[in-house]
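ok posting inputs for the magnesium ion job
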Amino acid sequence: RATDHVRIVEVGPRDGLQNEKKSIPVATKIELIERLAQTGLQTIEAGSFVAPKWVPQMASSAEILEHVLDTPPRSPRPITYQWLLPNARGLDNFLSTWQSRNTLGQDGYPTPPPSPGTDGGPALNTSSQDPNAMPSASSGAEAMDKERGSSKPNIEISIFTAATETFTQKNTNCSIAESLQRFEPIMARAKELDIPVRAYVSVALGCPFEGNVDPHKVARLAVSLLEMGAEEISIGDTTGTGTAPKTAELLKTLSAAGVENSDLAMHFHDTYGQALVNAVVALEHGIRTFDAAVAGLGGCPYSPGATGNVATEDLVHCFHSLGARTGVDMEMLARVGGWISEELGRENESRAGKAVLAQ
Ligand code: HMG
Ligand code: MG
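and the output
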């Protein structure tokens, strides 16, 4: 039903900022995340553990993770922070920060012993997928959180591959099959540590190098990634060349291949101005998770000419008009979009955001 809750994954701090040429101070990145966390958004992709030679802007992601783990949350509900990584090296870098917070928990509180069957992963609350759920006070750490009136963030990781060989080579310097091989040890380790894994499939609606993409290829990859243990597949229209009919065809093909709508998120870039139309097609198909970037920030460094994601403000405005609930405060979100656009010295790409700010 259109009145359902729609979960928005705010990818602005990662997808939005990764392509900015001028180095952005880490304090600005952290402030962006903090401001977004106040708007009612519950899932924020906060950075990536990729090679800094390839994407220098994301080199400060460990500092951002430290901030997230060390700072008592100010929002009443736990926020889920996601971290993109391409290989075992990325996972190691992520884990060295994550595990450094293991012996002493946030604010110096000792974390309780690991639950049986794990090898000592920190006691972060990674269990709740329900956007409205509050953490239960069943474990020692959660009870301590309750006592001091805060809730720990949920931490998740994202892996990424693509539907064409050329894009996969350009983006991650390997074949599609090699990218899946790289994921095996990541999945195994994440499972041991009880860290949920999301997986992206890029260029699902068109490739800058190979053109049209066979939807069956996307579906086969989605099935493989789910079988490997991914909890959610984010289907990326990296180039923004997706259209309403192409989106409908892809979603039908995914359903026919046995991929449940609840296993999917749609990730539309807005290069041709079709992202909102495509999102509504996906909403009508039954998809309830969408990626978006505040102020329409961004672009992929390996997709020449592609612009940012659909603006979160535009998506929220559109979904609210259809009776869907997002939990997001549109005015607060619009202010964040205006602020970050000014900070970066770029045009605010959200039409709805600009309209709200002009009121
Ligand atoms: P490579 O050159 O094949 O890897 O890159 P390598 O193993 O030969 O390593 C090269 C150097 O990077 C070495 O350092 C490694 O140690 C280091 P050196 O010895 O030269 O000093 N290295 C790393 N450093 C930090 N973190 C790591 C890491 N791995 C190696 N994880 C690699 C392979 C995958 C690393 C590289 O291709 C890479 O980092 N690619 C990232 C590309 C990227 O971030 N793209 C943007 C994100 S995807 C996207 O935007 C699409 C999405 O939004 C969905 C959509 O819109 O479709 C998700
Ligand atoms: Mg993207």
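notes: Residues 176-193 form the longest helix (18 residues). Confidence is low (pLDDT under 50) at residues 104-150.
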